[in-house]
Amino acid sequence: MPKNRNTFSSLGVLRRRLASRAAHAGWRWMQQAGAVTAQTPGRLRFGAIGAGTRLAFPQGTVFGEPWIRLGECCIIAEQVTLTAGMMPDLDLGPEPLLVLGDGVVLGRGSHVIADTRITIADNVFCGPGVYITSTNHSYDDPHEPVGRQWPRSAPVEIGPGCWLGTGAVVLPGARLGRNVVVAAGSVVRGEVPDHAVVAGAPARIVRRWEPETGWQPPLRTPAPQPVPEGVTPAQLRALAALADVEQTAEAPRG
């Protein structure tokens, strides 16, 4: 009898392992098959989608895609919402409402809500959960629920090379210059000049780069050394492995 119990237990473990492998393999297949690219748009018909751009599966809410233009080599992570207009099936006119440049990265769970024009320039990187919107509810009438009052809209522009940290919020009317850093959890409104670091809610400038004096206040960490020309990825991996060996050899032994 104990032998039979062991046999049944072993069979149960084997079935669970096989089921787990099948589930993971099936999910990987769905991720590949469900990804949206220029060659495999699925049900989505964007105004434009550049070569090398990929929307990971599963996608978030997407509508108004004829008024959405995506540049080349963009990475749109899972569960990212992209919408043009206040609701699906509206005629929004001849011009696009949401434009992403080349090399834009939108982290998992981010939202870009364009009821009027939103422009995100080349090489903008967004962490997970970033929220960018060109519309916001008003609260003028104290007797009417805020969610039922007509919203206000204003265009949003995010300049090239910006970095938006996890959970950052960009509100209607915001205009970010070139290479702006938005700290995680910040709420941005108004204009932000080129080469500025902003943080807080509302976001304020905490550091700027000036051609004459560099970063003010000065950076607290040294700038990373650029990779020398001609160094291959294999050589970099070998150097990293050598550094690990040296640290292990130098570690004190108990």
Explained architecture:
The protein is an alpha/beta fold. The protein starts with a helix and ends with a helix. The chain has a domain at 37-210: Hexapeptide repeat proteins (UDP N-Acetylglucosamine Acyltransferase, domain 1, 3 Solenoid). It is built from 2 helices and 24 strands. It comes from Streptomyces bambusae. It holds the Pfam family Hexapep.
List low-confidence stretches. none
* Global outline: globular
DSSP strand content: 25-35%
Rounded mean pLDDT score: 90
Helix content: 10-25%
Quaternary structure: single chain
CATH architecture call of the domain at 37-210? 3 Solenoid
Strand order of the largest sheet: 2-5-8-11-16-19-22-23-24
In CATH terms, the superfamily of the domain at 37-210 is Hexapeptide repeat proteins
What is the string of helix and strand elements? HEEEEEEEEEEEEEEEEEEEEEEEEH
Tell me the span between the first and last alpha carbons: 49 Å
Pfam families: Hexapep (PF00132)
GO molecular function: acyltransferase activity
Family: Belongs to the transferase hexapeptide repeat family.
Keywords: Acyltransferase, Repeat, Transferase
Concise summary:
Keywords: Acyltransferase, Repeat, Transferase. The protein is an alpha/beta fold and 254 residues long.
List strands and helices in order, with pairings.
Blueprint: H1 2-34, E1 48-49, E2 54-55, E3 62-63, E4 68-70, E5 75-76, E6 81-84, E7 98-100, E8 105-106, E9 111-114, E10 118-120, E11 125-126, E12 131-133, E13 135-136, E14 152-153, E15 156-158, E16 163-164, E17 169-170, E18 175-176, E19 181-182, E20 187-188, E21 191-192, E22 196-199, E23 204-210, E24 214-216, H2 233-250
Parallel strand pairs: 1-4, 2-5, 3-6, 4-7, 5-8, 6-9, 7-10, 8-11, 9-12, 10-15, 11-16, 12-17, 15-18, 16-19, 17-20, 18-21, 19-22
Antiparallel strand pairs: 13-14, 22-23, 23-24
